[in-house]
Amino acid sequence: MPGTLRDQKFDALFEMFDREGQGYLTRERFFRFAEGIAGLPPRGDNENAAAVRAGFEKWWKLLVPSGGSGPDTRIDRQEFIARMRSLVSSRANLDDAVLAIADALMRALDTNKNRTLSLDEYRRIYTRAGVDTAHSEEAFRRLDRDGDGAIGHDEWREALREFFLSDDADAPGNQLLGPLRPPTG
User: What percentage of the chain reaches a pLDDT higher than 70?
Assistant: First the structure.
């Protein structure tokens, strides 16, 4: 199935969440990934770690509207892509869940508190998310739209919106997880 550009991006997200390659997500596995991301804020930064967890909780509720708290609740690749397309991709849902995570990460990783991410700070996200850091420099260059050597807060949010909402193949935000490949299933 060739899929749309957004389907390719959602498929890449699914692959990132489904590290074991089992073809489905459970609440436990989704939150295992979330805990890894919640570990990015420095020790003692409980506010941003909690904001990351809360964002992932909202995201899971969008993916599994019934709450999906049981151990047998599963969402397969096609369900994930369809639900991402219909629920998570709305601007309001995106802001409430995914951008809440992104904002907390920006605050936590911005070690000098200048409201920007340096290349090294940005690479930490790649490392923790299990994305090949070989692609991080090119992605960083594209996301740094004003060429000042840092990704500002507005650039960061715009990149995330592009990743989740844009069908423009040339949008810099498509690079968030490295080069896109056709969906696997």
Answer: 93
